[in-house]
Write a structure and sequence with these properties.
It holds the Pfam family Fasciclin. About 25% of the residues lie in helices and about 25% in strands. Helix 1 crosses helix 4.
Length: about 170
């Protein structure tokens, strides 16, 4: 019998406010708690709940480490629009218009799918059942919101151009 994990994400409304609610929700499946984080919630909110998607969401730590996005800093004032633009790019690279469960990915073979942006995702599974997508390993797999399958990743899936644009410029003088 296949168990489904269901997550409930809050409605986020930006409206005229320059400051978003910075509270994140914990999602439960039985006794297990899952924390998607505010940036993950915002990305998932961009997808229609009634259509099948799989999204490989960076963990909270990955957003901060890889994209230098911090909830208390990136979602306030005039940074909100830049943050949403970055989250939209992450969505394009990490969402696939179909449901992909971890148990549908074979251990011995790599599968590939095109993301919403056309970026090719190469998906395999480690022996412990965690997915690896373009060399980014999952932390948690197979959570749900409507028809959306969510996998929480220990990194950000992105193309080389976007990766270069978010890397610090060490040649820049301070």
């Amino acid at each position: 019998m296949k168990m489904k994990r269901v997550i409930k994400l809050p409605d986020v409304s930006v409206g005229n406010s320059a400051v978003l609610s910075l509270r994140t929700k914990k999602f439960k499946k039985g006794l297990e708690e899952v924390r998607i984080g505010k940036f993950g919630e915002l990305i998932i909110e961009m997808l229609p709940e009634d259509l099948a998607f799989t999204i490989f969401i960076p963990s909270e730590k990955a957003f901060e480490r890889d994209l230098r996005l911090r909830v208390n800093d990136s979602l306030v004032g005039d940074k909100v629009n830049d943050t949403y633009a970055m989250l939209t790019r992450v969505l394009g690279f990490s969402a696939v218009p179909r449901m992909i469960y971890s148990d549908s990915v074979p251990f011995s073979k790599m599968t590939s799918y095109d993301s919403l942006s056309g970026f090719r995702l190469y998906i395999s599974k480690d022996l412990d059942g965690m997915l690896v997508v373009n060399r980014v390993r999952s932390e948690r797999v197979d959570f749900w919101k409507g028809e959306i399958v969510v996998h929480i990743m220990n990194g950000v899936i992105m193309d080389a151009e976007f990766e270069q644009s978010v890397q610090p410029d060490y040649n820049e003088e301070n």
